Amino acid sequence: AEDYDTIRPTFAETGTPRLPVGLNLGAQLFWQQKRFPAEFAKVAAMLMYPQYWALRLTGVAANEVTSLGCHTDLWNPWKADFSSLVDKMQWRRLMAPVRPAKDCLGRILPVLAIRTGLDPQTPVFCGLHDSNASLLPHLLSDTPPFSVVSTGTWVVSMAVGGNKVTLDPARDTLVNVNALGNPVPSARFMGGREFSLLTEGQSDDWTEADIATVLARKTSLLPSTQQGSGPFPHHRAAWLDADGINGGQRFAAISFYLALMTATCLDLIGAGGPTTVEGPFARNRPFTRMLAAATARAVIASEAATGTSIGAALLASEHGTIQGAGERFEPPADPAWADHARSWRAAVDAQG
Fold it and tell me: Are residues 203 and 59 in the same domain?
């Protein structure tokens, strides 16, 4: 790791923060080359995971920018080219050709058609990174500025046409590259994992009375349940004014916490305009309402079960059909919502 840190490109070059446990792909490749030089000398091509499956299906090796540009250290999003690391390590000659996500690489191999029973003319497209698949439908239909929050194990916030800000790599911000090849300021935290840990075995039933109680008491969860990532990687989680709360109130407070963490991520990347929430959190009304309150902007809860699947399907569509937008939440008129957001931020700031 120390050796890698001396040669990896700067955040200014790649928009990639230094991440732990091998989350920088460049670090994995560096380790493989240093630790297993004989095996590495036999490498025929280097390509990203989605395109590995395209290779298995078609026999065609390709790379693609949304995966190359997702905290790998391998891509310079400002120059739309491989980073200086790739040339330092003499990997450029091994990199499979970069092709657009929507490129049809070919038909499935005949042997696979026989084994699977699929039509031999089944096309295989180059493919793209999952969060960027969620973003793609909005790139094709929405007018900037807007932001998209893709929720799952990770909650990934992406701002398009927002305010110019200086990203802070210490707070888990990064630059993604969208399916059109353009840089996208992004931030993330492990919101889905936090939600699972916090609600495990508990009911998600809540009432408007539960919401009112949490707002009145300012019952709050402070970051971070999952440390080591997100906008507050070194803060320790703490409950405020939570004595005696029932299950519905706890669920509401957890949802508020996740919304306020998401709002922080959006602030860090200069987001503007409406925010579309994709994935499971789109169905969480306390989350979407608090996100609207904390950002003072509209939130659209996507009707789609997964924007990732829709974005991937659009690669194969000639018409670019877009799904319905979903329910729109304006910032609540009740000032208690915004007051709760301000109180939470003040308490987080007091944590130091």
Answer: no
Torsion on CA atoms 69, 305, 249, 293, rounded to nearest 10? 60
314-338 pLDDT, tens digit each: 999 876 655 567 899 999 999 999 9
Range 141-144, long-range pairs (CB < 8 A, 24+ positions): 141/320, 141/322, 142/276, 144/273
Residue 289 backbone phi and psi in degrees, to 5: -70, -40
CA atoms in the 13 A half-sphere facing the CB of 289: 17
On whether both 209 and 334 belong to a single domain, the answer is yes
Specify whether 106 is located in the same domain as 145.
no
User: Of 98, 125, 152, which residue constitutes the final position of a domain?
Assistant: 125
φ/ψ of 341, rounded to 5, equals -60, -45
User: Taken in order 230, 236, 241, 245, is the CA torsion positive or negative?
Assistant: positive
**Cβ atoms 323, 310 nearer than 8 A:** yes
Same domain? 101 vs 164: no
What confidence tens digit (pLDDT) does each residue in 32-76 have?
A: 999 999 999 999 999 999 999 999 999 999 999 999 999 999 999
H helix runs in 208-334, sequence order: 208-217, 247-268, 285-295, 307-314
* DSSP letter (8 states) at residue 243: T
Q: State both tokens at 210.
A: 């539960």
What tokens were used for 215? Answer: 């707002």
Range of the domain at 27: 2-125
Same domain, 176 and 265: yes
